[in-house]
Design a protein that fits this description.
- The protein has about 500 residues and is mostly helical.
- It folds into 2 domains: about 425 residues, Up-down Bundle (Growth Hormone, Chain: A); about 55 residues.
- Helix content is about 80%, strand content about 0%.
- Helix 5 runs antiparallel to helix 18, helix 6 packs antiparallel against helix 10 and helix 13 runs antiparallel to helix 17.
- The longest helix is centred in the C-terminal third of the chain and has 33 residues.
Amino acid sequence: MLERIRSSIASSPSYKWWAFIALGIGTFQSVIAHNSIIVVLPVIADYFDTDMSTVQWVVLAELLVLSCLLMPMGRLSDIVGRKQVYTVGLVVFLTGLTLAGLSNSISSLVMAKTLQGVGSAMSQGTAMAMIVSSFPGAERGKALGLNMSVVGTGGITGPVVGGILAGTLGWRWVFLSSIPVGIIALIVAFVVLDPRLYARDAQRPKFDWLGAALSTGTLLALLLTVTNGHRLGWDSAPIVGGALGFIALIVTFIWWELRTEAPMLDLRLFGSRLFAMGVSAGFIAFMGMHWMRFVMPFYLHGVMGYSISQVGLIMVPNAIAMILMGPMAGRLSDRYGWGRFNGAGSLMSATGIFLLAFFVDRSAPLGFLILAMVLQSSGTGIFNSPNHTSVLSTVDPRRYGVVSGLLSLSRTSAQTVSIALATVAVTLSMAAAGYAVNVGDILDSQDPALLNAFAQATEVALLVLGGLLLIAVTLSILKGGRPAAVVAESVSEPEPAPVPEAQKSPAD
């Protein structure tokens, strides 16, 4: 019965939409879980009586593991099957959510978030690969834009739900409330997604275990060095050792991937200006979005005096902007090409950040702050889906899994680095003003001098970020673009549906 339903859906002309809905539910649940926890970090810090440097690991633990495993899991899905890796990832993610909601210490919460990172790595990049494979090349921008709408909707729901639950039932329910959505995502994916439509690499190469280990070690060395430098000291032995280890590992990884017959990631793709600059600009653009989302809840709650529930509502317009701009930019880029949208979007995002830095002080009208945040989010929405489309246009469909993992990696690693850099900027600025950064002190203090110092530190962090986003603008311009007709011709079509004979003996 189940196979009959699945075959009927797979042969339907509307299968691409069935697949999009199935994968969209999982994406929605993942975004909710991530964004809801960001807005309640101040509450968690206060509950466990910890500081900013420690509470950041509630987010960083998941992002570190996610970043390290995205490419290996993406390549694994290319070889063993994308649906299989995706559904197992949902199960692992749900287990992490449950353990996080039951945590009784900051360390157990961090461990649960680590498990969530493993599940996310298995599902996120794989989901994007299946969405891309389900739509024809001429509609790829539309598909990725609609996926951004799902992300934006989760971005709206997450802070609102997180703020309300934390203010009423407690922070634990921020995790537990996502479990029912995750179960629905798992059931729908199992019923709807037909593994035959996401064919494995026909050559069935062996999995590049050494390449996976080297890439994991390289990212771990980089991210741990960046996230701990401000705490241990940038000239300390562990940080210097981590930096040297990163250099040694990345050199070895590059040497191995260029040498092996079946590399996890074909580094020759970076010989394409379009591919290399698209990935780099995407990294910086995601850094801009996440840095703002990490810093602003602390600022709005601690300095401006808004409750956690109010902070969640204040962050809603950002996600609305992404919901509206993502599909619009995706559809238009299918028609007119991606070049103009990449440049305009990244410039708009940088402008929003600079305006936000200008308005950040205790007397800033809330409306101006929201306007600046919306401008930044709108720019990110305009940039993302055309940029992803441009990068994927250079890739063979058999490697959609690993390249989608790379694109997801650019997002998650940017999030990790952005949190670390924001913490460094705030810490150094506060130290220069004679204050040690402690979230509890900032949230509970009525000292105008302390609050003013934190506001100035936030401004410094935003100015640094704005400078980085100007680099993204430059990369977007240098990357260039091609007309829509050329784009449609150069993008490979999705993997073909199975022939009737294959449908008679499906393999799951």
